[in-house]
Amino acid sequence: MASGAFVQRHLGPRKEEHSSMLSVLGLNSMEELVRSTVPEAILMANRLDVPEAMSETAYLEHIAQVASENKLFRNHIGMGYHPTEVP
């Protein structure tokens, strides 16, 4: 399975398994499952605006580009600082 997409490498249930599980529960969709189990008071009215999934390689390139925009500043912690925890 040579795919860069996480969703193809994920070991969770496949669409056929979703259908089988929903059938056992007497439901027709994952949306129906969510609406029947999650209290109305905490359900979101609108779907999240999430960008399309990208491959791991594409994400690493993207996050490297985002990180390249960081500004490096001089550290003024002082002499003799050691990152330790006092018991």
Index terms:
single chain, 87 residues, mainly alpha, 40% helix
Plain-language structure description:
This protein has 87 residues and is mainly α. It has a domain at 13-44. Helices cover 40% and strands 0% of the residues. The chain contains four helices and no strands. It has helices at residues 6-9, 15-25, 30-37, 56-67. The longest helix is centred in the last third of the chain and has 12 residues, at 56-67. The protein is elongated and about 65 Å long. The protein starts with 5 loop residues before the first helix and ends in a 20-residue tail after the last helix. The model has no long low-confidence stretch (mean pLDDT 85).
Q: Helix and strand layout, with pairings?
A:
Layout: H1 6-9, H2 15-25, H3 30-37, H4 56-67
Quick summary:
With 87 residues, this protein is an all-alpha fold. It has helices spanning 6-9, 15-25, 30-37, 56-67.
Output mean pLDDT: 85
Tell me the span between the first and last alpha carbons. Answer: 49 Å
Structure summary, number of beta strands:
0
Major sheet: size, sense and barrel closure? none
Q: N-to-C SSE series?
A: HHHH
Q: Per DSSP, what share of the residues sits in E-state strands of 2 or more residues?
A: under 5%
List segments where confidence is low: pLDDT < 50 over at least 5 consecutive residues.
Answer: none
